[in-house]
Write a structure and sequence with these properties.
The termini are far apart. The chain is mainly α. The chain contains nine helices and no strands. It has two domains: 89 residues, Rna Polymerase Sigma Factor, Chain: A; 73 residues, Orthogonal Bundle (Arc Repressor Mutant, subunit A), CATH 1.10.10.
């Protein structure tokens, strides 16, 4: 695994207001490194993309606090710490959810659960819920990010096609999608809590 070269100019651009292109460059350069870290920390392959996305969101939320300590690979070491913390939280949740409880009371409860709903109905409901939440948070994002998200996630168009159309990098589209999906997820969670 070759480690990406840390460009301080890129880190400075990540902290600026208009950082969409910088985030695209960052995702392109560092996503393989973050995938490697997640796998090295023992994250199952099927969860690696989710963990990488969570790490990218954590970085986006805390990059302003990063300080160069003057030692070699300062930024990569910081990324490794952020990544490790996300993995630890993930593994802790997985362990808590893995523990099951059984007995005849549980079997009786399970027998009272009605048959599963029609999968098409569930998929349609989930899609409508995502579209509703997306419309609720649309105003929080710049037009280019929103167009990239809507075209690739909701309409199902290819990232390469939209990148060319909007004249942005594929990495910036992935970063925009990640931020918007995280916000949509939070909006849905807020709605479910009410």
């Amino acid at each position: 695994m070759t480690h990406p070269e840390t460009r301080h100019s890129l880190i400075v651009r990540l902290k600026s207001e208009d950082s969409e292109r910088a985030w695209g460059d960052f995702v392109t350069a560092y996503e393989p490194f973050l995938r490697h870290l997640a796998i090295r920390h023992g994250v199952p392959e099927r969860h690696v993309p989710d963990i990488v996305q969570q790490v990218l969101l954590a970085i986006a939320n805390s990059v302003d606090s990063w300080q160069d300590d003057g030692k070699p690979a300062s930024f990569r070491r910081w990324l490794a710490v952020v990544s490790r913390n996300i993995v630890i939280k993930f593994m802790s949740r997985e362990r808590r959810q893995a523990g099951g409880h059984g007995g005849t009371e549980l079997v009786d409860l399970l027998q009272q659960v009605p048959a599963a709903p029609n999968r098409d109905q569930v998929n349609r409901y989930e899609h409508e819920l995502i579209v509703w939440a997306a419309e609720q948070v649309q105003g929080e994002f710049i037009d280019t990010s929103w167009a990239a998200f809507w075209s690739t996630v909701i309409e199902g168009r290819s990232v390469n096609e939209i990148a060319a159309e909007l004249q942005v990098s594929c990495g910036s589209i992935y970063m925009s999608r990640s931020r918007i999906m995280a916000r949509i997820k939070k909006k849905i969670e807020e709605e479910m809590d009410q």
